[in-house]
Write a structure and sequence with these properties.
Elements lengths: L2 H28 L5 E2 L2 E2 L2 H35 L8 H14 L5 H16 L18 H11 L7 H6 L11 H13 L14 H27 L9
Antiparallel strand pairs: 1-2
């Protein structure tokens, strides 16, 4: 198992434990059994909060794995000289480096370009190398944009592609777009934790998790192959 797939597997296991708790409470409440922890009686309000927590937890998996992916790609590229990089890899490093300089005035921008040129002209591996995440909350669109910029060979199977189309179940969004939007609504207070997933059953959330995690498995596999096969290195001419 690779570094990225191991990270994803660990996160999936944590989410499964979270889901088991939600189902256990749901079954007890549905059966009308009193449920309590010490002197605290658990109610539907507690279940609603747990359901919102599942949405936030699921998005956290996407974000954490993609953050780890950027780190892994950066570490791999860092081991090679810029003179060996593909054009796409060079552009993505420059995108991050330029952004790190801020807006600034003409002299500030010139200083950023000058420092970048010096790093490239040394032809030595660049330390602490990283890449810039595309704008927006992580979703399938943002993940695809990042893969396309680096020219990662990221293709979905026909079955998964069918699951990832925009759907009325997800407010005419793709599953990951819906997840990102709903997580933001909860995290930024547009929806309370009680109302964050009130309209979703646990089965709805499980279905969302299943397609999200299947998509992330494909993404992790594509980026891992990009690293392992050193696809960031330009072919010799």
């Amino acid at each position: 198992m690779t570094t990225l797939s191991t990270a994803l597997a660990e996160r999936k296991e944590e989410f499964a434990v979270h889901m088991v708790l939600a189902h256990a409470l749901d079954r007890r409440l549905f059966a009308g059994d009193p449920v309590s922890i010490g002197e605290t009686a658990l109610t539907v309000r507690h279940l609603l909060t747990i359901k919102s927590g599942l949405i936030v937890h699921l998005y956290n998996i996407v974000e954490s794995v993609m953050t780890r992916t950027i780190q892994e790609v950066g570490a791999a590229v860092q081991s090679t000289s810029p003179s060996e990089w593909t054009t796409e890899t060079l552009k993505e490093w420059l995108r991050h480096y330029a952004a790190s300089g801020g807006d600034g005035d003409e002299h500030t921008r010139l200083d950023v370009v000058h420092k970048a040129a010096l790093k490239l002209l040394t032809k030595e591996p660049i330390q602490d190398l990283t890449f810039k995440k595309p704008s927006g909350t992580w979703s399938d669109k943002v993940i695809y944009t990042f893969s396309k910029r680096l020219k990662v060979d990221f293709r979905l199977t026909a079955g998964l592609a069918a699951k990832m189309v925009k759907n009325s179940i997800y407010a005419d969004k793709t599953p990951l777009e819906f997840l990102a939007e709903r997580r933001n609504s909860i995290a930024h207070g547009r929806r309370s934790f009680e109302d964050g997933a009130r309209d979703l059953s646990l089965q709805n959330i499980q279905d969302l998790a299943d397609v999200t995690l299947e998509y992330m498995e494909h993404a992790v596999d594509a980026f891992q192959k990009f690293v392992d096969n050193k696809q960031f290195v330009a072919a010799a001419v």
